[in-house]
Each structure stands twice: as structure tokens, then as C-alpha cells.
């Protein structure tokens, strides 16, 4: 394979780890890759996500034309968590340990999955009781179990619900079981379908703008239409377009963000549209911080 990046193992714009000075009070973001996809069911391959997304990040330039500013926040790429393929529990322990270390250093995690169970493990290591969990996805992921597994990509948000975050807001939905929908309604989970986003983007942005307190953002790249993100575990038509996603991500400007993750990028080659759009979402998020 031909790499054209200076260092394919680090997200673009990352500083060298020897520049990390924990004694200054500057805002710091830590990129962590989690190449784990053992509970994926339909199309596997999100273990390639961290490599594909980092590689794609070298397409973007520091000056952000939409925001009229440079991406100048401190980013450190710590590499990948060593996952145990086929074992969720052991992998989760390793993710939790890594995120706890970042937390002790006051570094905000930006995690590249991997499948969606990764988000649960990250949140478990953060104190989420006062945090609003914002979930971009085609799917609700609110099943209590999937094929007998409670820790499944299809039950990821249900397990996050069990962690008792302040509030859950789901955006871009277009696929669920009826009982997932009932569960969301019964438990005051706010959700917007992709059709609602299409109809009134400003309404959704207003809800995001009105959040007080910390937020955690989890982005399943299948929230985009398969035209823009075909290489995902479970593609679902009638999704968001990149303009809508960019605009929603810019809503996190000035927010107290406890963490960000990008999951379910299952790119099979370098420079494909899914990893470009996934990487762009991280670029947009970091640009507005
Ligand atoms: Mn999904």
C-alpha cells in the first residue's frame, strides 16, 4: 500500500507527544483509535476505521473556510488501544483504563472506532450524570439485547442510557423497532428523524444551542446517506447530507464538550468517501473548538 502521509499513524494537525505540557491550562484533545468490530453483524470491517480516518485527515487544510479560522487547538494522537478481538469485556476494560488516564490529565477524548459499543466504554470512564449525550445515527440502538447479547452494537445506546446521562438527544434516525421508539418516548429521549432534519435543520440546531452543561457527541457515520458514507456496517437510505452534518457539528462551538467519538467507518480502501466524510466530521469538530 502507498501512504502519502508524513505519519499515517497520527491524525493530521496533531502535535508531537513530547510537546504535551500538562502544567499549562490550554484546552487539549486526545485522539484514541479503537479498532474493534467483534459484535458487528451485517458488514464487518470497522476495525479499519482508525487507520482509514487518520489517513483521510491529511486531505484537510488548517484554515477552515466556513468558520473563517484556523484549526489551532492542541491535538495529541496517542495511537490505538490494544483491543482483544472477539472479547468485548476485556476490550472495554482497556478502553476505560485509557480514557480514565486522559481524564486524569484533563485531556478531552476524541475516539475513532470501531463499532458503536466503543462509545459505551468511553462514557463508562467519564462521569456522565450531568452530561447530555448527543447521538447521530440512522439507528436508535436502543434494543435491550441483540441476538442474546446485551453488549452489542445494536444495544449501544441502551447501555449508555443505563449509565444515566442527564439527557439523550438522537439525530438523523430512520430505522428502529417499534419497542425502541416506545422506549425512547417513555424515557424522555429526544429524537429527530432524518426527515425532520431535512424539513427544519434550524429547529434541531436550536435544541443543540440551548443545551447547558457538558455534552458528549457520538457520531455513527451511517447517519449520512449511503451516497456519502457507503462503507458502514448497516447502511440505511434517506440519510443526512454533509452540509447538514457540518452545520450540526458547528453547533458545538463554545460548548463544554466532554468527549467526541466517530464510529462504524468500515472503509475498505484509503481515500474512500466514507473515511473522508468521517474524518471531515472530526476536522469540523476540532476546528470549532
Ligand atoms: Mn447506526
Any overview of this molecule?
The chain is of the alpha/beta class and about 290 residues long. Helix content is about 30%, strand content about 20%. The strands form 2 sheets. Strands 4-1-5-10-9-6-7-8 form an 8-stranded parallel β-sheet, with helices on both faces. It has a two-stranded antiparallel ribbon with strand order 2-3. Helix 1 (about 50-55) crosses helix 9 and helix 2 crosses helix 3. It binds manganese (II) ion (MN). The site of manganese (II) ion has 7 residues, from loops.
Number of helices: 9
**How much of the sequence is in beta strands?**
15-25%
Number of domains: 1
What's the order of the H and E elements? EHEEEHEHEHEHEHHEHEH
Fold-level CATH name: Arginase, Chain A
* Name of the CATH class: Alpha Beta
Quick recap:
This protein is an alpha/beta fold and 289 residues long. It has 9 helices and 10 strands. Strands 4-1-5-10-9-6-7-8 form an 8-stranded parallel beta sheet, with helices on both faces. Strands 2-3 form a two-stranded antiparallel sheet.
Amino acid at each position: 500500500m502507498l501512504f502519502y502521509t508524513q505519519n499515517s499513524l497520527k491524525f493530521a494537525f496533531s502535535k508531537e507527544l513530547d510537546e504535551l505540557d500538562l502544567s499549562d491550562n490550554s484546552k487539549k484533545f486526545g485522539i484514541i483509535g479503537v479498532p474493534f468490530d467483534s459484535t458487528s453483524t451485517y458488514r464487518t470491517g470497522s476495525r479499519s476505521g482508525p487507520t482509514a480516518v487518520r489517513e483521510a485527515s491529511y486531505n484537510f487544510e488548517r484554515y477552515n473556510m466556513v468558520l473563517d479560522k484556523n484549526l489551532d487547538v492542541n491535538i495529541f494522537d496517542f495511537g490505538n488501544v490494544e483491543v482483544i478481538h472477539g472479547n468485548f469485556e476485556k476490550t472495554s476494560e482497556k478502553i476505560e483504563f485509557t480514557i480514565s488516564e486522559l481524564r486524569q490529565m484533563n485531556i478531552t477524548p476524541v475516539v475513532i472506532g470501531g463499532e458503536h459499543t466503543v462509545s459505551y466504554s468511553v462514557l463508562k470512564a467519564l462521569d456522565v450524570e450531568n452530561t447530555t449525550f448527543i447521538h447521530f445515527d440512522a439507528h436508535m440502538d436502543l434494543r435491550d439485547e441483540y441476538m442474546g447479547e446485551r453488549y452489542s452494537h445494536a444495544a449501544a445506546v441502551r447501555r449508555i442510557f443505563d449509565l444515566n446521562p442527564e439527557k439523550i438527544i438522537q439525530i438523523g434516525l430512520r430505522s428502529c423497532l417499534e419497542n425502541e421508539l416506545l422506549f425512547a418516548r417513555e424515557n424522555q429521549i429526544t429524537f429527530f428523524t432524518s426527515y425532520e432534519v431535512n424539513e427544519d435543520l434550524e429547529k434541531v440546531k436550536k435544541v443543540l444551542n440551548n443545551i447547558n452543561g457538558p455534552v458528549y457527541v457520538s457520531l455513527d457515520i451511517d447517519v449520512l446517506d449511503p451516497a456519502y458514507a457507503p462503507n458502514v456496517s448497516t447502511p440505511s437510505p434517506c440519510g443526512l447530507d454533509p452540509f447538514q452534518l457540518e452545520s450540526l457539528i458547528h453547533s458545538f462551538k463554545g460548548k463544554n464538550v466532554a468527549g467526541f467519538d466517530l464510529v462504524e467507518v468500515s472503509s475498505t480502501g484509503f481515500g474512500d468517501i466514507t473515511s473522508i466524510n468521517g474524518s471531515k466530521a472530526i476536522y469540523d469538530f476540532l476546528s470549532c473548538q
